[in-house]
Structure formats: structure tokens, C-alpha cells
Recover the amino acids of this structure.
């Protein structure tokens, strides 16, 4: 086809005499409001975190005037390394559990009759309408020593009297899975919905067993959804703060708690900044891996917005 | 009637893409004028230039004796029917049709009368209170047409109006369009990539390729007498042969040498001198098939070949005949007399014949 | 399709079981929470009788009422500003494909992949460095910042389905720009913009981490209040508070549902 084809179509707006917005002046003046806002309140603060990581702290809890490498070096001591490692494995565990649950659910919903699909999706989404902290609180109630689950388990005799469900790593993982699960189901459902199920028939026809057809055809088919779900769960999990703070024990501190502790209680802003830099780098790794490794242009935030959008509607 | 709508030497580029190249067309008042060509040939751009949505880089646009090149869409008496109808989704059918008159500041009573009449013409009165997503494609099409016609434009531009409809509906809407055209008598400029639509509706067709007008003519002229190789192959099926003029017989006929087939007689329409390199086009339905060598007939050419493929198409059968390694496409109608004959079958050695006037000659120089 | 269903029966039943499990998992805490808010006893171990005493206590708590008003004030302001900014951003991102827009896209996109805690700490450092006093103002600025990106992408998604021929058709029928904006753009894009606004509103109401970081005295929102109650106060009121809060978000979500479904 002639390359002119696209340009000649009326739907292509690049050349359409557009109303609001013909010419550079219009473009710039319409772009500036949001762009300036984000530069000022997003880009500048983000850059500041990097700068402040190399500043000294002053005694009154503010930021000193001289530069130092000490803080950032300090962050790599053994104590922090342990917390970094813990943050990573907990996030992986949470993401893995979410994906394991989300794939069957996404598959099942996508295979239902069209009439019921939207209702089922709504069922997945409704828990998200509940405030994040309230969802955590609900679990505190459930896992409480006098709460329904422990009382039940103890009376049946599954767990002994001296086992507590709250304030440990298991509680952190369960609650994290709970808060992120819906976000994992939505993109997987969306991908599964687009998947051509006759491909599975074809694979079976060509002699693949059920399990192989599933692994070799279905999973790669919904790869996009899985990657999106992974990023949507993994990245926030790396930065989680409230969950370990509220349902975790002393040994459950993650990087997020350290940042909050340094920033609020202990008031050492440069150290909080330094830990944030480390966290930011940890987040950049999977993200860049998917963007460049997968050759996908926009790996995941657009999808997050879409997912959130579905969930909020 | 003189030329009512004219494009004079219109040129348009988008960045590096030279989309419209020095185009001149003229349409008479009240006719249906089609722009026909493959997608990407620049026909939609021409329509948008006519509508005022694009300004040409050079050249001018004339409507009813006035230069309208610089006028914006709302200033010229031209309206457009968009490809996907572009009905306002949040308004009823009634409000969609009433949009133009209301913008023009017409009194509500008058609007009511006019919209009512319009919807009546296209038999959509019963659906006046529905929204666009509640009616079918063909109905949307009719609404889009009257919405554009209610302002009584001098020119109605239609951009692939039937492309989104299925085959049956498309055939029905062709008749409907023809009827609406008869009712209003407005000049239609009709853009399409479908030769059947253009053929059945138009008074004149301009065939376009790669930004250029290849040929302008009535449907019959374009089919019977294609000016270029592109037109010959784009409109209907044809067999194209490279040939050399080997001799001149008289003022009307010449001898041509088709590489690989031999020498034949052909009508020398363009008065080519001996030695010219030309291209011949022969339509498949012009050939006749004979089981045995026919006795020499008046002004007929014939040649022996072998049937290598047969495609039965109901009303007709298409044969692929191989002659000295060349494949010739032959189409035979199923006439009563043929039933008496033995049907040719695969690998039969047969003769094909064609009249010397059925050969269209095209200059070799143009594509 | 039906054949495919049959052949994959084993996988289908597994997926059904997982789905049922997930649904129970998702709803159990909420159901228990609501039930508990009417329980005379403080913990869910046993049912001590129906009671509205927690609700009474809640409505007599001035701190809670103040937090509710703060939450609504912040959410409304942040929604109004971010909807305007986000809609403009979506419009230019959809219309132009220039280098400026590539940059604009990047900077609008980045906040979506940034965890709350980093957004919170960076804004905290920013405000502290500029010596801005933490309070309602800083919280509102922060909320607008994370809402803008979401609004932009929601509206952008709707804009991509928008048929620009509608604008051409209106112009063709003689409309000028003012008429086009009022009669065509706003009504057609309205639901998309409303969806973006609703999203901004719920995100703002939902936020805890960012507010916690950049908030100060006088800017306590409901989530922050819930947090501090969980940390120090009497959890029993929280049951009731949660239910009221849930009812509030539910109604917003339902209104959003109705608005966005009705048109289009």
C-alpha cells in the first residue's frame, strides 16, 4: 500500500485542520498546565530525593547544607541488606501467589456466558471499592487472637493454643495478596478474553496433551496480561508500607517501613532519601527488564490506569 | 450545462507524501461523478479538498463559477457524508438531521417541517426519536445523507458511503442512493474503491492511481476503452499482452506481434506507426472457444491452446488456457447452444478466437 | 467453542474451584467486618448480640467528623483540578505526535509506576526543602499530582475511540468552535471525563500513604484517622467507621457506574 494511505484518511489527525489546537502555539499552551504541574510536583521532587540522599542531616530534623557519601554507604550495611532481601522475596511470594490464583480465575471468567461476565467482573472489583486501610483492618479483625479464624482453628484442633496468626510474615503475605489480587485478575482476564480458544483445539488436534496445550499455547497467548499483572502487583509490593506496619511483627519490616521510620519517627531525611533511592533502583530493574527485554513500548502504567479505571467504574 | 464543479491543477503533499498530483477534474451540474481507485490513491484527499477540510498546496477549486479554494467548510455550500456516518451519538436521529438548520438559525417551526420532510423521504420518520446506536447501518447511512442534504448544498460529497455495509445491503443502498439523487438532483461526488458501485451509480468516473487521474469517462468508456494498463486491469478482468506493431494493414487496422503467440490483427485506434512497443488488453469474455480449428472467419484471430484449469461460476465458466507457456483467462457464458456441445475439459486441446476490434491498445510508455 | 469447553473440562473444574475459593477469600473479611460492626462484643470470636452502640460512639466522635469533612474537601478539590489538567493532557497527547508530546507522555506515565511511598517521600522532601508548612495545602497538591496521570489515561482511552469525523461533520454543517465544544465535544466526551473525575475522587479518598507523608496538623483524612485509631485507639469504633466509609465509597462508585453506563 501507498504510505500516503494513512495520511490521506480523515481519521488521521496529524494533518486534520483541528479546531482547538492548530499550530505550535496552541499545542504548547494546552500542554503546559499539566506538564508544568507534573514537572514541579513530580519530576523536581523525584530529582530531589536523589540529591538529598547525598546531603548531611541536621540536628533539628531538617536537611544539612553540606554533601556526604556516608548516608548512601550506610544504607548498604548488613542490616539494610537483610531488609532489602526480605522486601524482594516477600514481593516475589506475593506476586507469585496472586498470579497462581489470578490465572484460573481470569480463565474461568473469560469462558463464561457473556451475560454473566460483567457481573463476575464486578464481583472481582467490588472489594476494591473498600478503602485500602479498611481492608487491612478487616484482616486484623479476622486474624485477631480472639478473631473468628483462630478461634475456629483452635477449637477444631488444627493449630495449638500458642500459635498466633497476626503480626508475622504470613499475615503480611496474606493481606498483601488480598489487597492486590483483584488488580492481577483484571489484566489476565482481559488478555484471556482476547485469546482465541480454538488455538487450544488446534494444539490438541496436533497431538498436544491438555497440560502441554495449556502451557505452550494458552500461557504464551496471555503473556501480555501476565506481564501486566506481574508489574501491577510486584512494583507496589516492593514499596509496601502500611501492611507490614499494621499486620506484621518486629521481623517484618520492609524498605517502605524503613523509609517511613527515618522520615517520620527518627527524622533523618537524608537517610530516608537514600533508602528511597535504593527502592527506586529496585523498581527500575523489573520495569526496564520488561520494557527492553520484552521489546514492549509501554510496559505497564497505561495498563494500570486501565485496570484502575475498570475497577473504579 | 457547463462545468459546475472543477478542480484545476490541484496538488497536495503531506510531509514527504505527495498524495495528489496535479489533478484536474470537472463535474456537470446534477450528475453523479465518481472518484474510483485503490485505497491510498488520494481520492479521499481530493474529497476533503472539495469539502474544505484540506487546502491544496497549489491549484484551485471552483464551484458554480466561483473560486472557493480558500473558503472554510461552513462557508461553502458543500456537505459531506462521512465514511462511518459520523452521526452525533448523543443526539436523536431527529436532532442529528436538525443540527444544520438550527446552526443556521432557522425558526424551530420551519426546522420541524423540513426535518419531517427529510425523514419522510428516506423513510426514517418512525425512527426519529432513536439514537444512532439503536438503528442499523443502512438506516444510519440514510440519516447521514439527509442530514447533509437538508441544507440543500450545491454539492454532496460521499466518502465510501457503502463500505461499512454488507453485500446485500450495499446493493439495496445503491438503488436507494440513486433514488435520493433523483429526488434532490444535487450533484454528487462519490468516492469509492468498488468498481461495481461506481459503474452502477455514476454518470462519469475518474479512475485514480497514486495521486493521478488515469482516465475520466462514462462507465462504458472506461470499461470498453481503458486508457492505461492500470485502468484496464483495475476495472474488471483482463488479459494484458506486450506486443510490437509489425505492420500497418490499412488506415484502421495493424498487424501486431505478441511475444510468444505470433502475429495477429488489431484495431489501430491510436494510429501507432510500425515498430511501436504497445500493450494489448483483451477482456476474457471476448474470447470464444472452439473444439476444432474454426474455418477462417471475417476479422477473427485464432490460436491453439490447452485448457489447464476450469472454474465453474454458475452463470459462466472461467477457463485458463495455456498457449506457448502463457496463461490466458477466458470467460464463457452458459448459453443454450453450448449445452448441445461437448463441454471442454482439462487438458483438452482447443482453439480460442477473438475479433480484431475486441483488442484494446495501450501505449507501452505508461504504466 | 463448546467443543473446546468439553475437552478442557479438567482444567475448567480446577479453575472453577480456584474461582470459588478466591471469591470467598475476597468477601469473607468484608462480610465479617460489617457483621462485627453490629456485634455487642468487641471481637468476632463470638456473637454477643446486635448493637448499634459502635455507630453511636462513632457519630459522637468529633475527630471522625472533622476527618470526613477533610477527606471530602481534599477529594473534591483534587478532583476538580486534576480533571481539568488531565483532560487537557489527554487531548494534546491524542492530537499531536510531536517530541514535546513524547516527553509529556513519559512524565504523565511515570507516576503510574511509582509506588505511593516514593511519591510520598519525594513530596515530603520537596515541601520540607521549600519550607512549606505541611497541611491541607500540601495534601491537596500531592493528591492532584497522582490523580492527573490517572485522569489523563482514562480520558485518553476514551478519546482514542472518539470519531474525529464528528467534528468535521459539525463543521461541515456550519457549526463554529464554540458550538462544537458545547454541543459535540462535551456531551460526547462527557462520560469519559466523568469517569476520569470519579476515578480521581475515589483515588483521593482511598489514599493513605501519600497523605500520611505530606499531611500535617489539620489535614487528617479518614484513612489517616483509621490508621491512627488502629495504632492507638479503640478498634471497636473502626468497625462502624469502616462500614460508613464503605457505604460512602460504594455510593460514589455506584453513581460513577450509572453516569458512565447511561450515556454512550
Amino acid at each position: 500500500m501507498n504510505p500516503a494511505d494513512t495520511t490521506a484518511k480523515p481519521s488521521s489527525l496529524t494533518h486534520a485542520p483541528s479546531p482547538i489546537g492548530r499550530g505550535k502555539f496552541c499545542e504548547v499552551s494546552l500542554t503546559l498546565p499539566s506538564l508544568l504541574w507534573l514537572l514541579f510536583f513530580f519530576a523536581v521532587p523525584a530529582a530531589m530525593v536523589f540529591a538529598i540522599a547525598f546531603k548531611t542531616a541536621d540536628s533539628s530534623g531538617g536537611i544539612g547544607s553540606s554533601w556526604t557519601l556516608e548516608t548512601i554507604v550506610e544504607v548498604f550495611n548488613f542490616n539494610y541488606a537483610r531488609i532489602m532481601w526480605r522486601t524482594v522475596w516477600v514481593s516475589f511470594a506475593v506476586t507469585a501467589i496472586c498470579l497462581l490464583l489470578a490465572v484460573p480465575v481470569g480463565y474461568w471468567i473469560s469462558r463464561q456466558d457473556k451475560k454473566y461476565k460483567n457481573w463476575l467482573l464486578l464481583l472481582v472489583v467490588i472489594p476494591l471499592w473498600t478503602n485500602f486501610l479498611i481492608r487491612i483492618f478487616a484482616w486484623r479483625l479476622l486474624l485477631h487472637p480472639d478473631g473468628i479464624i483462630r478461634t475456629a482453628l483452635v477449637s477444631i484442633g488444627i493449630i495449638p493454643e500458642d500459635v498466633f496468626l497476626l503480626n508475622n510474615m504470613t499475615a503480611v503475605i496474606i493481606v498483601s495478596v488480598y489487597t492486590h489480587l483483584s488488580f492481577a485478575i483484571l489484566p489476565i482476564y482481559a488478555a484471556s478474553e482476547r485469546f482465541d480458544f480454538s488455538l487450544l483445539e488446534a494444539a490438541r488436534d496436533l497431538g498436544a496433551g491438555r497440560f502441554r496445550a495449556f502451557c505452550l499455547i494458552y500461557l504464551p497467548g496471555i503473556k501480555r496480561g501476565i506481564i501486566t499483572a506481574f508489574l501491577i502487583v510486584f512494583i507496589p509490593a516492593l514499596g509496601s508500607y502500611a501492611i507490614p506496619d499494621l499486620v506484621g511483627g518486629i521481623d517484618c519490616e520492609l524498605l517502605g517501613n524503613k523509609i517511613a521510620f527515618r522520615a517520620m519517627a527518627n527524622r533523618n531525611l537524608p537517610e530516608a532519601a537514600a533508602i528511597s533511592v535504593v527502592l527506586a533502583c529496585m523498581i527500575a530493574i523489573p520495569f526496564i527488564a520488561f520494557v527492553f527485554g520484552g521489546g514492549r513500548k509501554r510496559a505497564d502504567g497505561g495498563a494500570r490506569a486501565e485496570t484502575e479505571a475498570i475497577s473504579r467504574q | 450545462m457547463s462545468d459546475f464543479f472543477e478542480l484545476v491543477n490541484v496538488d497536495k503533499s503531506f510531509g514527504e507524501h505527495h498524495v495528489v498530483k496535479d489533478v484536474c477534474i470537472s463535474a456537470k451540474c446534477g450528475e453523479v461523478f465518481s472518484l474510483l481507485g485503490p485505497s491510498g490513491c488520494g481520492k479521499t484527499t481530493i474529497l476533503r479538498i472539495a469539502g474544505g477540510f484540506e487546502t491544496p498546496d497549489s491549484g484551485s477549486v471552483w464551484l458554480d463559477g466561483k473560486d472557493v479554494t480558500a473558503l472554510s467548510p461552513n462557508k461553502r455550500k458543500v456537505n459531506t457524508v462521512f465514511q462511518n456516518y459520523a452521526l452525533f451519538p448523543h443526539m436523536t436521529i431527529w436532532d442529528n438531521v436538525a443540527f444544520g438548520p438550527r446552526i443556521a438559525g432557522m425558526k424551530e417551526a420551519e426546522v420541524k417541517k423540513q426535518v419531517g420532510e427529510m425523514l419522510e423521504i428516506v423513510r426514517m420518520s418512525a425512527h426519529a426519536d432513536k439514537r444512532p446506536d439503536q438503528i442499523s447501518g443502512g438506516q444510519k447511512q440514510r440519516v447521514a445523507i439527509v442530514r447533509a442534504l437538508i441544507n440543500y448544498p450545491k454539492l454532496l460529497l460521499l466518502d465510501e458511503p457503502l463500505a461499512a455495509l454488507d453485500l446485500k445491503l450495499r446493493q439495496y443502498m445503491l438503488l436507494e442512493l440513486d433514488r435520493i439523487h433523483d429526488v434532490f438532483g444535487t450533484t454528487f461526488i462519490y468516492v469509492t474503491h468498488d468498481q461495481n458501485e461506481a459503474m452502477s451509480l455514476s454518470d462519469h468516473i475518474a479512475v485514480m492511481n497514486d495521486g493521478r487521474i488515469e482516465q475520466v469517462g462514462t462507465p462504458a468508456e472506461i470499461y470498453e476503452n481503458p486508457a492505461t494498463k492500470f485502468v484496464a486491469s483495475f476495472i474488471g478482468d483482463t488479459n494484458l499482452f506486450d506486443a510490437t506493431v509489425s505492420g500497418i494493414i490499412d488506415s484502421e487496422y495493424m498487424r501486431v506481434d505478441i511475444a510468444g503467440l505470433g502475429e495477429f490483427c488489431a484495431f489501430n485506434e491510436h494510429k501507432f506507426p510500425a515498430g511501436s512497443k504497445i500493450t494489448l488488453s483483451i477482456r476474457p469474455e471476448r474470447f470464444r472457444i472452439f473444439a476444432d480449428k474454426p474455418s477462417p472467419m471475417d476479422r477473427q484471430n485464432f490460436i491453439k491452446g490447452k485448457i489447464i484449469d476450469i472454474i465453474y461460476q454458475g452463470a459462466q465458466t472461467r477457463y485458463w488456457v495455456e498457449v506457448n507457456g502463457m496463461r490466458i483467462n477466458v470467460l464463457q457464458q452458459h448459453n443454450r447452444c453450448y449445452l448441445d456441445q461437448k463441454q471442454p475439459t482439462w487438458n483438452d486441446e482447443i482453439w480460442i478466437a477473438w475479433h480484431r476490434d475486441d483488442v484494446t491498445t495501450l501505449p507501452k510508455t505508461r504504466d | 467453542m463448546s467443543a473446546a469447553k468439553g475437552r478442557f473440562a479438567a482444567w475448567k473444574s480446577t479453575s472453577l474451584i480456584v474461582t470459588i475459593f478466591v471469591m470467598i477469600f475476597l468477601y469473607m473479611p468484608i462480610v465479617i467486618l460489617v457483621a462485627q460492626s453490629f456485634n455487642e462484643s468487641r471481637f468476632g470470636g463470638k456473637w454477643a448480640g446486635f448493637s448499634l452502640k459502635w455507630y453511636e460512639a462513632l457519630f459522637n466522635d468529633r475527630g471522625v467528623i472533622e476527618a470526613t469533612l477533610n477527606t471530602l474537601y481534599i477529594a473534591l478539590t483534587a478532583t476538580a483540578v486534576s480533571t481539568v489538567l488531565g483532560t487537557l493532557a489527554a487531548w494534546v497527547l491524542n492530537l499531536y505526535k510531536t517530541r514535546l508530546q513524547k516527553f509529556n507522555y513519559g512524565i504523565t506515565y511515570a507516576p503510574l509506576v511509582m509506588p505511593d511511598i516514593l511519591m510520598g517521600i519525594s513530596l515530603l522532601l520537596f515541601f520540607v526543602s521549600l519550607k512549606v508548612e505541611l497541611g491541607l495545602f500540601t495534601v491537596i497538591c500531592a493528591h492532584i499530582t497522582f490523580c492527573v496521570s490517572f485522569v489523563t489515561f482514562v480520558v485518553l482511552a476514551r478519546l482514542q475511540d472518539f470519531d474525529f469525523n464528528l467534528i468535521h461533520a459539525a463543521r461541515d454543517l456550519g457549526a463554529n468552535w464554540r458550538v462544537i465544544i458545547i454541543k459535540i465535544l462535551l456531551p460526547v466526551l462527557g462520560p469519559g471525563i466523568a469517569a476520569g473525575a470519579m476515578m480521581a475522587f475515589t483515588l483521593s479518598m482511598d489514599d493513605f500513604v501519600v497523605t500520611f507523608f505530606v499531611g500535617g496538623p489539620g489535614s487528617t483524612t479518614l484513612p489517616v484517622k483509621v490508621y491512627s485509631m488502629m495504632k492507638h485507639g479503640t478498634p471497636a469504633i473502626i468497625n462502624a467507621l469502616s462500614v460508613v466509609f464503605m457505604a460512602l465509597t460504594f455510593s460514589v462508585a455506584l453513581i460513577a457506574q450509572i453516569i458512565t453506563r447511561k450515556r454512550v
Q: What stands out?
A: The interface with chain B takes residues 163, 165-166, 168-176, 179, 184, 187-188, 263-264 of chain C (CB under 8 Å).
